[in-house]
Automatic annotation (TrEMBL):
<protein>
    <submittedName>
        <fullName>Uncharacterized protein</fullName>
    </submittedName>
</protein>
<feature type="region of interest" description="Disordered">
    <location>
        <begin position="1"/>
        <end position="20"/>
    </location>
</feature>
Amino acid sequence: PDGAIAEKTVRISPTTVHKY
């Protein structure tokens, strides 16, 4: 589930890509 929301957040927040 976290990956699903993270994928959407990475679009508005490039910092999320680091969380992957």
